[in-house]
Amino acid sequence: MKTLKITLLAFIALVLTTTVYSQERITKTFSGIENINLSTASGNGTIKRSNNSEVTVTVEYTFDEDIYKPIFQRNGSTLRVEEKFERSRWNRGYSRWTLEVPNGIDLNFKTGSGNIEVSGVSINVIAKSGSGNIYIKDLEGTVSSNTGSGNLDFSNIKGTHNGHTGSGNIRVDRSEGDSDMTTGSGNVRLRDVTGVFKMSSGSGNVIVEGAAIKGASLFSTGSGNVEVELSSALDYDLNLGTGSGNATLDFNGSQISGEFIMEASSKNSIQAPFSFDRTSEKGRRYVKEAKVGNKSILVKISSGSGRAVVRD
């Protein structure tokens, strides 16, 4: 009898576990959609290109149906999709959203703690996550992104792309378009980028490998290093600054020309492959200036306690 009771209890536990964690799947298709507003509490979201002009939304979840309600509401050409919890959402389970969308739509995706991934489409994106990561790749369109503590990872982007993270890292690889990115304490790394840039970190490094700068740009950090390597001639104003790290501008073989103002805590911490016209003191700091070539652009490179460097 004891053995029978144990077996029965084990069977009941198995049934309950299977019920709690069984996966549900809902798929809905819409036509004539131009705007999508997707809001999730914690679910991850993947957005990819559809094979036609329709929008297909799929949600997979393991939450109990008594507490979890996916909502789909259409108003004209706008589709609103969200997940609603009847009780506290801190229940065992997960949700995963997949949207297949045509080119040309506007997407607004907000999640409390999930990750957001968008790839292979030509759309405009607003992506916000409380603590998740945001991945954007192979996209043509404008991007505005914000995450509290996650990372921002962009690759092969054509269009204006802006982003902010409180403590995560920022990576942009192969982009064409103006970019404004900030992080409170993470690192910023760019590679093979073209556009006008405003990049800043509160305490991380800002590293740029191969930048074609198309307008007045700024790269700064509070306490890390700033390193910018150019991929083409510099024809616009440029400002590199750090509070305590090194600030380095590498012309990478391109012609060095412009008005240079370089600032550091000591004379020897200011280095360049050209002669300076004048040196002055600014409090406990030193400023060296030079006019090189015939371009009328202004290049400012400053460091609070590290080195200010120009390389050829």
Automatic annotation (TrEMBL):
Keyword tags: Signal
Top-level taxon: Bacteria
Task: Fetch the Pfam families from UniProt.
Answer: DUF4097 (PF13349)
Q: InterPro entries of this UniProt entry?
A: Toastrack_DUF4097
Annotated region (Disordered), positions in chain: 156-186
Q: Note whether Acyltransferase occurs among the keywords.
A: no
Ranges where the DUF4097 domain occurs: 33-254
The signal peptide here is 1-22
What ranges does the record list as Polar residues composition bias? Answer: 156-168
| Protein's name in the database | DUF4097 domain-containing protein
Q: Which organism is it from?
A: Roseivirga echinicomitans
Taxonomic placement: Bacteria, Pseudomonadati, Bacteroidota, Cytophagia, Cytophagales
